[in-house]
Specification:
Layout (H helix, E strand, L loop, with lengths): L21 H5 L5 E2 L11 H11 L11 H15 L8 E4 L2 H12 L5 E4 L6 H7 L4 E4 L3 E3 L2 E3 L2 H9 L4 E5 L11 H14 L2 E5 L20 H6 E5 L2 H4 L7 E4 L3 H13 L9 H11 L1 H25 L4 E3 L6 E5 L7 H12 L1 E2 L1 E2 L10 E5 L4 H15 L2
Parallel strand pairs: 1-13, 3-4, 3-7, 7-8, 8-9
Antiparallel strand pairs: 2-10, 5-6, 9-10, 11-12, 12-15, 14-15
């Protein structure tokens, strides 16, 4: 089966977080929103069919999980990533950010430093600071057009008492697919100082050609024992509105502590639709995903070509993973407010403005490539034209 990713869906007036808030957030309704990371593609047909079958039951009562759901997860990660999970390592959570927040609450002390590697997905700051902890920034180093970890600075934070690290693997917004060697060096530091790791790996299936995902917990026994991994099918198959994710933790104490808090907050109930959608995606969505990744690679090339030809001042960071393009526009000479005016007022587009990812993100923009190519090219044309006038 061939899937049509060129079809432009009309998502307006569907209560879309991305499409139905343009006037409220950016001041105009005709804006093209390429910011929040959901896709403008329909989910795999098998997912839609599973959802329809589930809806036809007609009674949407309290729901229990089944073993087939966890078995589908285990098969997927074994097949796609060579990571052999055990079903007893898995627990449901309403979302990745929920899991991150609970982990900060459970595995760090009030007022203590929690490490994050900036620039990074902005809710990392929220879950640290809103839980009464301190964000201990370990800025990534830009070298040869990509980010690398600053291990010396990281160790200095651990020496000062940081005992929890939020890892973004693959990295959002920079698109790094951290290598086994990089992750092993990180694990050795964490083991030395007794640091637990919460690894956000929601983008793990969205790998650009020639790159592979390495789960942090897979690099060593010590890494597995210190890690709570946050995972979901939602980013991969465009299911974020179902609010479903799961964690994997082989360390029984970590998992038991997490499960107890999930139950205390009554977040342990199963979403009526979610498990059927996830099972269908993992069991029958692989061909769709493989074709999607080819399409996204084409979108990346198209966006890079436009920037190279029409806005050579831009310095894009070539992503190894995710469907997000992170680019440095500081040579345009605009401050944060100026970049926002350029996008929202002059160009009529919305990318993510980079300062929300931390100070190292200032002057940058994050562009969502997961849309029909005609929409992407229209947005890029608007932006480049506005930047030149």
């Amino acid at each position: 089966m061939q899937y049509d990713f060129d079809k432009r869906p009309d998502r307006r007036n569907t209560r879309s977080y991305k499409w139905d808030q343009s006037l409220k957030l950016f001041g105009r309704e005709d804006l093209l929103p390429l910011w929040v990371a959901d896709m403008d593609f329909e989910s795999p047909p098998a997912v839609k069919e599973a959802m329809v079958r589930r809806a036809e039951i007609g009674i949407y009562g309290y729901t229990i999980p089944d073993e087939a759901y966890k078995d589908a997860i285990v098969r997927w990660f074994d097949r796609r990533h060579g990571w052999r999970l055990e079903t007893e390592w898995l627990s449901d959570s309403p979302g990745i950010v929920t899991s991150l927040s609970l982990a900060v609450e459970l595995f760090s002390e009030p007022g203590s430093p929690v490490i994050l590697q900036t620039p990074v997905y902005y809710p990392f700051f929220d879950v640290i600071e809103m839980n009464g902890r301190q964000a201990a920034e370990n800025p990534l180093i830009k070298r040869n057009g990509r980010y690398e970890m600053d291990y010396d600075h990281l160790e200095s934070l651990m020496k000062k008492g940081a005992r929890l690290l939020l890892l973004c693997n693959p990295h959002n917004p920079g698109g790094r697919a951290w290598s086994r060697g990089e992750l092993l060096q990180l694990a050795e530091l964490c083991e030395k100082y007794g640091v637990k790791v919460v690894s956000d790996e929601i983008h793990c299936d969205l790998m650009m050609p020639g790159h592979t995902h390495v789960p942090f917990a897979s690099v060593s026994e010590a890494a597995a024992d210190m890690t709570l991994t946050c995972l979901a099918a939602t980013k991969t198959f465009n299911l974020p509105g179902l609010h479903t994710s799961f964690i994997a933790a082989s360390n029984r104490t970590i998992k038991r502590t997490f499960d107890r808090r999930i139950k205390a907050l009554s977040l342990h109930m199963t979403n009526f639709f979610a498990h059927d959608a996830v099972k269908a995606a993992y069991d029958h969505g692989e061909q769709w995903l493989d074709q999607l990744l080819v399409y996204l690679s084409g979108n990346l090339k198209a966006a890079l070509d436009v920037l190279g030809e029409r806005l050579p001042e831009a310095e894009p960071m070539i992503p190894e993973a995710t469907y997000l393009l992170w680019a440095d526009f500081t040579r345009l000479g605009l401050d944060t407010a100026g970049l926002k005016r350029l996008m929202y007022e002059k160009a009529g587009v919305a990318f993510n403005e980079g300062s929300i990812y931390g100070k190292p993100g200032e002057g940058h923009l994050r562009i969502n490539l997961a849309c029909p190519r005609s929409l992407l090219l229209e947005a890029m044309d608007r932006f480049c034209t506005a930047a030149r006038t």
